[in-house]
Amino acid sequence: MKLLRKMIYPTVSSTEGRIFERRAARGIVLEDSKILLMYTKHYNDYSFPGGGVDLKEDLMQGLKRELHEETGAKGIEVISEFGYIDELRPHYKPEFDLIHMLSYFYLCKTDKEFDTPKLEDYEIKNGMMPVWIDVREAIEHNKNVIKAKEKSMGLSIERETFVMEKILEQNLM
């Protein structure tokens, strides 16, 4: 899969230390002029549905599980690889200094009908919900959050916005 970008967060002063490795699979679902994203009220941002892949899960299994859980999507079909982001950022748990996150993005197709999402407790607490939105609107919103340096801003917003811009560059919308 093609590397889209390598990111090291500005607050990372050393790439040494106790590093937690995490793989994530994220779905790009397009329908007409809209894209399926997750809006998270706590962070006030838009991101791609998907998330961490369990140790014994392959990327496709994890992608389909996460897409179904977060959005209720059914009949998920992976169309093609889009690319991946390699990032090193601070870890919030004291037993680790850094997290090395590999986020793999895939173009997907789903059935028109969706089930009710099965969000985890922390996702519900953060106000996470699936939305169909124009990608330009989501990019503009996220860029405004970044520019304002909102206190609640999460670490993933730059990665997610970068991939949304790549979708536009490749004329997928």
Rg: 16 Å
CATH fold descriptor: Nucleoside Triphosphate Pyrophosphohydrolase
Coarse shape: globular
**What's the domain count?**
1
Question: Counting H and I runs of at least 4 residues, what is the number of helices?
Answer: 4
Number of strands: 8
Low-confidence stretches: none
Helix content: 25-40%
Structural category: alpha+beta
User: Do you know the CATH architecture?
Assistant: Alpha-Beta Complex
Beta-strand level of the residues, as a percent range? 35-45%
Distance between the termini: 21 Å
The overall average pLDDT, rounded, is 93
CATH superfamily: Nucleoside Triphosphate Pyrophosphohydrolase
The CATH class is Alpha Beta
Reading the helices and strands in chain order gives EEEEEHEEHEHH
User: What's the main sheet like?
Assistant: 8 strands, mixed
Question: Your description of this structure?
Answer:
- By secondary structure, this protein is of the alpha+beta class.
- It has one domain: Nucleoside Triphosphate Pyrophosphohydrolase (Alpha-Beta Complex).
- Helices cover 26% and strands 37% of the residues.
- The protein has four helices and eight strands; from the N terminus they run βββββαββαβαα.
- The chain has helices at residues 59-71, 121-125, 135-148, 157-169, and strands spanning 3-8, 19-31, 34-40, 45-47, 50-52, 77-90, 98-109, 128-133.
- Strands 1, 2, 3, 4, 5, 6, 7 and 8 form an eight-stranded mixed sheet that branches.
- Strand 2 and strand 3 (34-40) form a beta hairpin.
- Helix 3 packs antiparallel against helix 4.
- The mean pLDDT is 93.
